[in-house]
Structures are given as C-alpha cells and as structure tokens.
Amino acid sequence: MPRRHAAITGCVLAIAALTVTAVPAVARPLTAGAEVVVKPPPGMLAALQRDLHLTAEQAQARLLNEVRLAPVAAQLREELGEDFGGSWLTGDLAQTLVVATTDKDHTPQIVAGGARAEVVTRSLEQLNTALDKVDTALSDHLGGPVRYVDVRSNKVVVLSNVPSTTQNVIQASDVDPVTVRVVSSIEQPQLLSDLVGGNAYYIGTSERCSIGFSVTKGTQNGFVSAGHCGTQGNTTSGFNHVDQGVFQASTFPDSDRSWIAVNSDWTPKPWVGNGAGGTVNVSGSRVAIEGASVCRSGSTTGWHCGTIQQLNTSITYPQGNVAELTRTNVCAEPGDSGGSFISIDQAQGVTSGGSGDCTSGGVTYFQPVGEILTTYGLTLTTTSGSTPPPPPPPTTPGTCTGYSRTVTGTLTNGQSVYQPNNRYYQSTAGGLHSACLDGADGTDFDLYLQKWDSRKWISVATAESPTPDEKITYTGTAGYYRYRVVSFSGSGAYTLGYSAP
Questions:
Q1: Residues 232, 233, 237, 242, CA torsion sign
Q2: For 44-119, which CATH class?
Q3: pTM for the model
C-alpha cells in the first residue's frame, strides 16, 4: 500500500502577539500558577478544562507551551534530516518537547534548540516503512484493526483482540518482529456516520454527517468531509434541509476524504462551531505535534478536546483499510463523521471513525486535512482576508447596574483575580447567574464564571470579546461559583455586577 505524503504550508498561530525565542531544555517551564497572557479561541479553554481535567490557568499554560514549541520541533526535524526519529510533547502542560534521533552526535544540537534529546534505533522513515509492511501483512486478517507508528517507543504498535494470531501473522511476514509490538486491545474502529436528524448536513434523504472545513477551488465554494459520508454525485442538504451541494470527489477506503461543492445559498466561512453558540477561527493548517491539544466539533456530540496520540495510524474498518490517519483520545459518536479537528486555530483534519463514546470516553481517528487539500487541489478558507464574526455588543460604561451584588477592583496588564474577594459564593438553588463587567476604556478585559465540581473549578460560561466590557448569563444547578476577571491587555479599574439564584 503506497504511503501518501502531503506538503503542508506553515501558518502563524494567532493566539496572541508573542515574541518567543528558543530556550534550552533545562529552562523552567510554565507552571499552573504562572500568569499567562494567552487568549485561546472561544470555548477552547472550557473544553480543555472539562476533557483534560485542567484548571483555566493550566489550560492557558498548555496552549502557550504548544505555541512556543511547535516551531522548534519543525526546525529540528528539518535539521536532523534522515536521522530524525520523531518528536512529541510531554508533561501535563505540554511543557517539554522531546526530539528523537538515530545519531547521538545530534544531542547537543537538539538541546541547544530547546528540546530534550532521545537517541533511538530506528528513524521515522524506517518506522513508516515498517508500518507499510505490517499493513500489507495484516490486510486480509481481522486481527490487528489498529496499527500505528509509536515514536515514543520507537516501534510499530498493533492493537489486536487476538494478539497471538496477529503475532503469528507478523512472524510469518517479512517484517522485522523486533520493530513491532502487539498489544491486546478491545479497540474496534467504527465509522461515525448516522441515520438520524440533527444540525448538520444530509446526504440524500436521511444519512447525516458533519461539515469539516470550508474550502474553495477556483471560484467554486465548498467544504471537505469524510469520504465514507458519500460518493461522487451524491447530493447534500444543509442542517435546515435546504439544498446545499454535490459530492465532487470521494475516496474510501484506503483514505477517508471528500469534498462537496455548494450552491450560491451557502457562503464558506473560516470558522468552526465551538459547541457553545460561538465559533473558533481557522487561520491555517499547520500539523500539530504528537501530545498537542486538539479539539473536535461534530453534529452529534458538539465540542470535545483531547490530545494527539499518534500521527501515522492505519485502521481496518469493516468496510476496508484506511492509512495515514491521526489517532486521538477525543471522544466522538455516530453523526460526528466528517467534522472538524482543530488545534488552537490550525485545521488538522476531518473525523473518520472511532471506538467508545462521549459518556465513557473513547478514541477517535481523523483524516489529515492537508492531504485532502493537496489531492483535490483545494484552498482552505482562513481568516486572512475574511471578517470574523462580530463580537457581542459591548456594555455601555456605567451600565452595570441592577445587579444584586457589586465589586470593584483594578487589574494590571496580564493579571487575573477571582471575585468575590478571591473567594466564592454559594447558590442553594438552581437558576440564572448573570454578570456585567465594566472595564476601563482602552483595555481588553475578559470574564469567566467557574463552578466547583467537587474536585476542581471548571469554567461554565465565558465572555471574551476584544473590549473592556463583558456580559454573562448562565443557567446552572445549586453549588459553589466564582468569577475570574482577566486583563488580556491593558491596565485599569473595573466594576463587576452579578446576581445569582
């Protein structure tokens, strides 16, 4: 089975205006308590807190570390060439970049570049070749439905529910058995299309999938999705069942990609829904490092986040084999197929299939978007040249009145405080929580409502417009709550009015 290599154009992340230089591997990483001035896409912090069990500060620190280390990984990969053995992020806050090499003489170069060096036996190219051979050996066997390059162990890993049978097949092939590790697993990939209604796009009269990313081909607008969602010539309708478009090309199995041309009623936007009524900007398609945070948007389960586990994964579905997927620990369910995977503001891919669900947790695989764009000659719709969705209307200074409680304070640039008075308040009944933040002119202050879940504080509502003034409304159950007031930029006084049931 030939491997496919897509060229991905590097893009600049637009979380914040940061000037970051390479630091030695022994440099002190960001900690949970550090004040990090990073403004992630709306809804991403809350999802990372929920799905990775982080505090708001930890989630911010993690994203900043990923932004800082991504260009370091790319540069070192280029410098090491054929000796490159892979790279990955490690630590709860992704604070350490590990770069593997087959030549120990590269160790000082890696450390000087800002990473931790690891000397390995096999290069990434050799591991990819070994995976090709494993795919071929297991192509006619039901065992070993999940196969991937594991750069951390410098091996090809095969997940199988009949490990002894799988091991025997590999032993009888031309694959070096030392390179392969067979692991007993119940992971059984299934495609995630569905036959129920929902806010998505429909193929024919009933089958539902999720939109991936908006694209153009010349003057033709469209979007990319999973290949198993439809075949060339299939017609689609939108979430509202209004005529939408036609599948122009589709590949499945072997790959899992498609693109759909839409009619003039549909306008491509560089946004991904964040599950909370808002959107996340799409600024590019730079491939994230293994271990980096990644979030998924789908029409069944909405917005969920996790981390990238392996970049080069081969899957055996009941319908056939699919190669070069990315494996994640993000959950998904039927109907989420084709939906967006995004890392901060960088498009990563479209949902292919998975194992498990969003109640008990699971594993999901996505088709990298770069290969879809390259194969079909498409251009990703990004925020460059596009107007982002308008922010919520700002409050008028001095209008945070009529609330049952009012607190005041001052913030310096990048500072955050908790209100009331660095403590919390208790609501003994469920109902509406509402708040109004009136900040000093010329600043960008943000507001977060957090709730105690018996173990940690979780953000349940956010207001992150690029203005000094914010409003929040949230209907919640009884419990302990607090507000976090953050200065994304600027210094000055603020007034916070809030009411609770």
A1: positive
A2: alpha beta
A3: 0.68
